[in-house]
Design goal:
By secondary structure, this protein is an alpha/beta fold. The chain has eight helices and seven strands. Strand 6 and strand 7 form a beta hairpin.
Amino acid sequence: MQYVLETTVYPREHERVRELRLITQQHPKSFKGSSPDQMQFFSVLLKMIGARYTIEVGVFTGYSLLSTALALPADGKVVAIDVNCEYYELGRPVIEKAGVAHKVDFREGDGLAVLDGILDDEDGGGTFDFAYADADKLQYAGYHERLLRLVRVGDTIAYDNTTLWGGSVAMPRDTPGSSEYDRVVQDYMVEFNAAVAADDRVEACVLSIADGVTLCRRVK
């Protein structure tokens, strides 16, 4: 991992992304932040698919949000949803310094409720090029149903922490050191992964990057 970071990630890291990454790493809840190699991957992916209009559920300090905004064209937009704007306010000054605040539409509130509101506003959805979910893990099934309606056929949804969760999805439930919450999330993620794999509305790809990312391409 260190080799990857030092060879391809840090040398090309935008100075404001680096600034916000370091701020996030100093936060007591830094585990909520995305990994630098994952953000580099998303940045390249967004440019490859020509994304202009994206949505992100779960913002924290805005580290991944900043990476997304920088990857979008000048007229691009990212709708950012989080239940708590306090963490986002830590990163907002950095986003402003990066010159991409005009691309960000931050909406505070429960992820499912805000998504429902967007679906009502968008008259059924189908307007986003890319969606990224990294919020309440026990709501992923609900996010999936809504995000599938919001992205266009042929476009992509990414779910964070879906495949590994610290490796717990592949471990016995009674593994020493795992908490009750870990076991709850483990059970949920195993069920969610199976549901996505069987969902004929998407083509799914599981990546072992960071703590596990599942990419879903909407096919119908």
